[in-house]
Amino acid sequence: LGGGYTLKEIATFLGVHYTTVSRVVKKGELG
Fold it and tell me: How does DSSP assign the chain, residue by residue?
């Protein structure tokens, strides 16, 4: 991920909890 976004900001944008974003990022499913 780029653009200097925090997980919380991404989660707010996507409407999900930041831990969900973290799991997805770790799986490499975003981007």
Answer: --TT--HHHHHHHHTS-HHHHHHHHHHT---
* Residue pair 8/23 in contact by the 8 Å Cβ criterion: no
What's the one-letter identity of residue 1? L
15-28 tens-digit pLDDT: 887 777 778 777 77
How far is residue 11's CA from residue 5's CA, in Å, rounded to a whole number? 10
pLDDT over 90 percentage in the chain: 0
What pTM was computed for the model? Answer: 0.41
